[in-house]
What we know:
The structure is a single chain. By secondary structure, this protein is of the alpha/beta class. The chain folds into 3 domains: 2-135, Fumarate Reductase Iron-sulfur Protein, Chain B, domain 2, CATH 1.10.1060.10; 150-243 and 420-493, FAD/NAD(P)-binding domain; 249-417, FAD/NAD(P)-binding domain. Helix content is 37%, strand content 16%. The chain contains 22 helices and 16 strands. It has helices at residues 2-5, 22-25, 38-45, 55-58, 66-74, 78-88, 92-98, 110-113, 121-135, 158-169, 186-189, 198-210, 227-233, 262-274, 279-282, 300-311, 332-340, 362-367, 423-427, 459-462, 467-486, 488-493; strands at 150-154, 173-177, 214-216, 236-239, 245-246, 259-261, 292-296, 316-321, 344-347, 349-358, 374-389, 395-399, 405-408, 411-414, 418-419, 454-456. Strands 3-2-1-4-16 form a 5-stranded parallel sheet, sandwiched between helices. It has a 5-stranded parallel sheet with strand order 6-14-7-8-9. Strand 8, helix 17 and strand 9 form a beta-alpha-beta unit. The longest helix is centred in the last third of the chain and has 20 residues, at 467-486. The protein starts with a helix and ends with a helix. Residues 1-25 are annotated as: Disordered.
Amino acid sequence: MATQKMLKFxxxxxxxxxxxxxxxxxxxxxxxxQEFAAIKAAEQASRCSQCGVPYCQSHCPxxxxxxxxxxxxxxxxxxxxxxxxxxxxxFPEICGRICPQDRLCEGNCVIEQSGHxxxxxxxxxxxxxxxxxxxxxxxxxxxxxERAESIGIIGAGPGGLAAADALRRKGFQVTVYDRYDRxxxxxxxxxxxxxxxxxxxxxxxxxxxDGGVEFVLNCNVGEDISFDAIRGKHDAVLxxxxxxxxxxxxxxxxxxxxxxxxxxxxxxxxxxxFGDEVPDFADGELNAAGKRVVVIGGGDTAxxxxxxxxxxxxxxxxxxxRRDRANMPGSQRxxxxxxxxxxxxxxxxxxxxxVGHVTGFAAEAQExxxxxxxxxxxxxxxxxxxxxxxxxxxxxxxxxxxxDYDEPAxxxxxxxxxxxxxxxxxWGTDGLEVTRWxxxxxxxxxxxxxxxxxxxxxxxxRGASLVVWAIRDGREAADAIEDWLTGEARIAAE
Length: 494
């Protein structure tokens, strides 16, 4: 019977949920994909070939049991499908929306390789969990037995929250410290609403709080509370701060007026979406309305910036990337969505300098830590070509001499990636070892750092990476912390 429900990839074509048309969706920050209906979700799930060796599962960082919950969805057993889905994934409703499935599970689907079009795994995962919330199948942590040991988690992003959820379900007392006024990290303030509506994140935050997780927000470790104080207060500590230091451009006037960091731009936009007051948005510095916008970078953050600028009413939006389309790190699905919405991609191009005129005074320049306050009027664009492969195997961009031109712009957004902050210096901590890249040095299996009882997960260990990897790290660290607090490891150390 189960077999009859599956293996329909030959007779049933691949379908994604309907997208709202580009003109309409460009006017707001709501998600662009409609929800699957029950019949359509079951139909698309039935396309799974039920592989003996499911590459979708092996290429998922969480090793989600995808074939099983696809089969259960095809059979209409949605509550069981949700139970299987959430057994390995703390936030399936979030991963279903923002994971780059085209690079992970869907990109490695066997029927995709055979030319039949991949199963729409992400859309079905989203449907399953949204249905579970609607039907009341999702519940807060309710440990069978409370434990006295407490864990302090620094950072309320996906890695920290995944660990918090897992540790509460084990009965531990959990306190999460975060610098922002809302939990979620980049899920809340970095990813725009058209990819992840904020009530989805707030709903999960509320569920964690209902399950007994304590949140200490607006708390800067190293300023409002010391790292040593957190260590003294808790039996174990997990560092899950993420990486927020922006890579910069190697040019003289990289901080000219009108040139902003992607993290500042996206955070301001999301705060406005919440209804918060943002002075730098109100005075126009972080608002693209009526401006010619240039975004520098080719990753997912750049895609978020260009699509946000469209929604803010930019006059034009162009994205400069130094390699070609085939070599860009961002999701091809996101590039397509951006092009539909009116973004122009300028491949094989990089900024040479910012062209403008002086508009400020020496005091203002000193306050902003720049040589002079120049309001840009254009970006001098350098044309590139791809040369020999670099150490990663990708072709290195090379400058084409004499091919520069000026691209008019009133707002430039730097989306060049993120680097770790210097935590030992920031926190005044001795003994916390970091790598030569500045990331915290931690065991890849247990996530232990050089300090006893201190663990680290997510981007602060990996460098800028995916949400799904942070979730995996958080879940693994929760198991390791449990072993430390209850097993022989701590006794031996003491």
